[in-house]
Design brief:
This protein has helices spanning 4-14, 58-62, 154-162, 200-211, 226-236, 256-262, 298-316, and strands spanning 20-24, 32-33, 37-38, 48-49, 53-56, 67-74, 88-92, 104-107, 111-114, 118-121, 132-133, 144-146, 150-151, 167-171, 176-181, 185-186, 197-198, 216-222, 241-245, 266-270, 274-275, 281-284, 290-294, 325-329, 333-334, 340-348, 353-356, 373-377, 383-384, 388-394. The chain is an alpha+beta fold. Helix 1 (4-14) packs across helix 7 (298-316), helix 4 (200-211) packs parallel to helix 7 (298-316) and helix 5 (226-236) crosses helix 6. The protein is elongated and about 95 Å long. It starts with a helix and ends with a strand. The structure holds adenosine monophosphate and magnesium ion.
């Protein structure tokens, strides 16, 4: 049986980057940027006044000149017509290009105007180049503005717009099929009888996919019936990612491994030395599509999605650094097993770290409520003392 990191390495070894497509900037929010973006010119493109005020020559200030003759008013988007002579200034607006003969801006709050023509500086100090954003100080032409891959959040979209990128190269989203299984599992619109439970994992999995902006193309529930499962999974295998839930353990009615085999799915691994989620099975279809068969307990389903489905997505979206964040586990934790254990952790604002809380096992539908991440208690140590460093997979 594989250990967690071995299972992850298996997934990586067969994962291929998603294809790249071009979308309009207006549709790129939350997509994964595939190509880096370079600065097409200097940013700022000109010496830009950061204040409404006057622009002077610092040499005049050093000579003791405090009252200036207004030569011209420079607005954002227009060029100055005149150059400055000694004792002259421009009135200048925020966002305007500071003309070459001026080199320092004094904000209106520090100036008193005597009619339209004269401006008196009231502040004690003026520093050379003050309130002027220098051309190229953010980015020089040709600089790397945005590395890829990265998620296109609002700031990234804003920067791409500033760079004039109208069409954005992003990774194509894979299509996902979800198949839940189990005779005891009923739709949430149905009143369960006393031995039935609602299909909560369908909603959990849909939500996890939504957090990755993945369109769920097919979502089906099937009873523990070989023929029904065969039909549902054959249909599901047309999609890039197939997530099967339940029916993957060792019970008599757990048909998923057998049916996947019948459909020609090659097993990458079946069963992993982890808790929860040990029965997880990952395989690939002949066309390269990935199948993730995740155990049915809600916490096992969540944890194995985080560990394996997300690892696959991360890799196919081009990310090569680890998703795991080093963090402190603030409270002591001991374990009886010799496998990697995973559990919801809660960020503590008063301290720089996370705590874990006891729950009633992987069937506990409340275990992950309010969780900020999934903590990892490594297989090789029984005790994790207070404040020990651990690794956390952030939620969402
Ligand atoms: P299984 O992995 O099919 O052996 O199921 C393990 C446990 O998870 C059982 O208690 C199931 O009732 C429960 N379970 C299976 N599928 C779901 C589901 N879709 N939603 C919620 N719980 C489920
Ligand atoms: Mg079942």
């Amino acid at each position: 049986m594989l250990m967690y990191l071995e299972a992850v390495a298996k997934i990586r070894s067969l994962a291929k980057p998603f294809s790249v497509e071009t979308v309009p900037l207006t549709s790129a929010i939350n997509r994964i940027l595939a190509d880096p973006a370079l600065a097409d010119r200097d940013y700022p493109p000109f010496n830009r006044s950061a204040m409404d005020g006057i622009a002077i020559r610092i040499a005049d200030w050093h000579k003791g000149i405090r009252e200036f003759c207004v030569r011209e008013t420079v607005y954002a988007g227009t060029a100055a017509e005149f150059t400055l002579a000694e004792g002259e200034c421009y009135r200048i607006m925020t966002g305007a290009a500071c003309p070459p003969t001026a080199d320092s801006v004094i904000r209106n709050e520090d100036v008193s105007y005597l009619g339209d023509q004269r401006a008196r500086v009231e502040s004690k100090d003026v520093v050379h180049k003050q309130h002027i954003a220098q051309q190229g100080e953010d980015l020089a032409k040709g600089d790397l503005a945005l590395s890829a891959p990265r998620r296109c959040d609002a700031s990234v979209i804003g920067t791409l717009a500033a760079l004039g990128v109208r069409d954005v190269s992003v990774y194509a989203n894979p299509s996902v099929a979800i198949v839940t299984t189990g005779n005891e599992v009923v739709d949430i619109d149905q009143q369960p009888d006393c031995f039935q439970i609602r299909n909560s994992n369908q909603y959990l999995l849909r939500s996890l996919c939504a957090q990755w902006q993945l369109p769920v193309a097919l979502c089906q529930h099937v009873r523990d019936d070989r023929t029904a499962l065969l039909k549902a999974l054959r249909e599901a295998l047309a999609h890039h990612i197939v997530i099967v839930n339940g029916g993957v353990s060792a019970g008599d009615a757990d048909y998923v491994p057998r049916v996947l085999e019948e459909l020609g799915v090659a097993t990458l691994f079946q069963k992993v030395l982890i808790k929860p989620g040990k029965p997880a099975l990952v395989g690939t279809a002949a066309n390269g599509n990935f199948v993730f068969a995740l155990p049915g307990n809600p916490l096992s389903c969540l944890v194995t999605f985080k560990l394996f489905v997300e690892e696959y997505l991360w890799y196919c979206y081009g990310f090569r650094h680890t998703r795991l964040k080093k963090a402190k586990l603030l409270n002591h934790r001991s374990k009886k097993t010799s496998v990697d254990e995973f559990f919801p952790v809660f960020r503590e604002t008063h301290a720089d770290g996370y705590t874990w809380r006891p729950h009633h096992g992987s069937g506990d539908i409340t275990a992950a409520i309010g969780g900020d991440g999934i903590g990892w208690h490594a297989q090789n140590k029984r005790e994790s003392s207070a404040n020990e460093e651990t690794a956390v997979l952030p939620l969402p």
